[in-house]
Amino acid sequence: MVLIKGYKPNVEVILIFLHFYVFFIRACLGNWKKKKMVIVLMNQSNFVLDHLNQIDWVKEN
């Protein structure tokens, strides 16, 4: 994802976690197999962590 210039990182972080939260609720409500859900949630977590690292990197430079 591309970071927009002048975009507040805190807002972006909140949006990411909102997305993650909604995804988690959907996953819990859906009739998914536990194994599949765990894999998808792990992928989502990695995406969030990567994004947070990217934001930190942008702040530093």
Automatic annotation (TrEMBL):
The chain crosses the membrane at residues 13-32. The keyword Membrane applies. Keywords: Membrane, Transmembrane, Transmembrane helix. The keyword Membrane applies. It comes from the Eukaryota. This is Transmembrane protein, putative.
